[in-house]
Write a structure and sequence with these properties.
Blueprint: E1 27-28, H1 35-39, H2 54-62, H3 66-74, H4 76-91, H5 93-99, H6 106-109, E2 118-122, H7 128-135, E3 140-145, H8 149-159, E4 166-170, E5 182-187, H9 200-210, E6 211-218, E7 221-229, H10 232-238, H11 254-262, E8 266-268, E9 280-286, H12 292-296, E10 297-305, E11 310-323, H13 327-330, H14 335-342, E12 359-362, E13 374-385, E14 390-399, E15 407-415, E16 418-426
Parallel strand pairs: 2-3, 2-5, 3-4, 5-6
Antiparallel strand pairs: 1-4, 7-9, 7-11, 8-13, 10-14, 11-12, 11-13, 14-15, 15-16
Helix pairs in contact: 4-5
Bound molecules: S-adenosylmethionine.
S-adenosylmethionine (SAM) binds near residues 69 and 202.
Length: about 425
């Protein structure tokens, strides 16, 4: 069906891996015909689409609710950083290349001038990022989403009279067909502690299917951090509370309260004051080169030195993403690379003093809050640490075998001569 609404499109539907011939499953809206042929440099990159599981269907179904999109769009830190990134690359794409003219010219880079840019929005949701791109002068945007929210995106595109510039494709990125190479991939794929949801795998597939050599990926790279934290109030609210409830001794509930409060990771906002040391880089993701395999399991060793005497209640995880050009084209180091260089032990965050540096969307405790907040892994019991006391160990993040959208967190840590292991699942 072209140019209109599919008559039957089950919520959270996806085709099953037949992406080249999957149009009976995928319902592309082509609000604009004809442009494709003249633009078309047919791409023929066969990438095997992973099967669409029932978990994936449930995942897409969850994005059909407007509330989740409302929350994301109302997160101004998130949405305005994306808008700024788009504008920066629209307004400054020439400026950007002037900036790097010692290294490369626009023509040598093989990038078309403004107005010829073709974009794929991986997981367009309501279409907001696609519309930002069209407003910024993209020639054409393919807005792809497997959730029913794509139906709404199509209406939004029409309401904004952008149907000739934005094609909404309702289907998985793994399954839909786009018959040309694209210059830019934009996507808001980041889950809690960066890798939860495993949506980055779909961006990788889009990149390998359609991105032209030298094309742009927004965001371009990401860094996941962790740090030990102190949060005695949280412990008191969840555990000590039961010791005296309206004068009644409810301490028999304490073990259950600890289990319920601290067994699994929790997403909450902490402040910089909760953080005991500089954070450590768990994973640096270069969106131009990262592979699906590399994301299946991530392990990092750490060694912290507490900057204060405090109860050590657990670890916090958060991330940054950066919107810069391909590092291989410009040779310009990303701030993530710099962060790792600044501290050979894995790196604390580098403060970004230079306004010419790439735009960064940060979810760090000391930065303005976002809907991602921080992800906490609490211990059942706090460990009292002295100033300068060493906390070392390792963390392994693995996509759950049961549901690849879930994440297993295996933590081994030692301090003050005692060692511990904590297993948890972010689901
Ligand atoms: C975090 S939301 C972002 C929505 C929108 N881009 C925004 O910034 O408001 C991610 C969207 O990607 C979609 N999505 C995730 N994986 C996808 C895939 N493999 N193919 C198509 N859509 C996908 C989800 O259905 C969801 O609507």
């Amino acid at each position: 069906m072209e140019g209109g609404m599919p008559t039957s499109s089950p919520a959270g539907s996806c085709s099953n891996g037949h992406h080249q011939n999957g149009t009976d499953h995928v319902k592309p809206w082509r609000s604009h015909h004809g442009g494709g042929a003249s633009r078309s440099r047919r791409v023929n990159r066969e990438i095997e689409a992973p099967p669409c599981t029932d978990f994936d269907k449930a995942y897409f179904q969850s994005y059909s609710h407007v509330g989740i999109h409302e929350e994301m769009i109302k997160d101004r830190v998130r949405t305005e950083t994306y808008r700024m990134a788009v504008l920066q690359h629209q307004k400054h794409i020439e400026g950007k290349f002037k900036l790097f003219k010692e290294h490369i010219s626009l023509r040598n880079a093989g990038l078309p001038p403004i107005g010829l840019i073709v974009v794929v929005d991986v997981g367009c949701g309501t279409g907001i990022l696609s519309i930002f791109c069209a407003q910024a002068g993209a020639k054409h945007v393919y807005a792809v989403d497997a959730s029913e929210i794509a139906l709404q995106a199509n209406e939004v595109v029409k309401a904004n009279k952008l149907s000739d510039r934005i094609t909404v494709l309702h289907g998985r990125v793994e399954d839909v067909q786009i018959d040309e190479e694209v210059d830019v991939i934009i996507s808001e794929w980041m889950g809690y502690m960066l890798l939860y949801e495993s949506m980055l795998g779909s961006v990788i597939i889009a990149r390998d299917r359609w991105l032209r050599p030298g094309g742009l990926i927004l965001p371009s790279n990401a860094v996941l951090y962790m740090a030990p934290i102190t949060h005695p109030n949280r412990y008191a609210e969840s555990v000590d509370f039961w010791r005296n409830v309206y004068g009644i001794d409810m301490s028999p509930i304490v073990p259950l309260a600890k289990q319920c409060a601290f067994e699994e990771p929790s997403v909450e906002t902490i402040s910089g004051e909760n953080v005991l040391t500089w954070p450590h880089v768990v994973k640096h993701v270069d969106c131009y080169t990262v592979t699906v395999k590399e994301l299946e399991s991530v392990t990092a060793s750490f060694k912290f030195q507490s900057m204060m005497r405090a109860p050590f209640n657990g670890f916090a995880f958060w991330f940054d993403v950066e919107f810069s050009g391909p590092a291989t084209t410009t040779g310009a180091p990303s701030s993530a690379d710099e962060a790792t260089k600044t501290n050979p032990s894995g790196g604390h965050r580098r403060k970004r003093a230079n306004p010419d540096e790439a735009l960064v969307l940060s979810t760090a405790p000391e930065d303005p809050p976002t809907h991602w907040q921080q992800t906490m892994v609490y211990f059942y019991e706090p460990i009292d640490v002295e100033q300068d006391q060493v906390i070392d160990g390792s963390v392994t993040l693995t996509q759950s075998k049961e549901n690849a959208r879930f994440m297993n967190i295996h933590l081994e840590y030692a301090s003050g001569g005692r060692s511990f292991v904590k297993e948890s699942v972010l689901r």
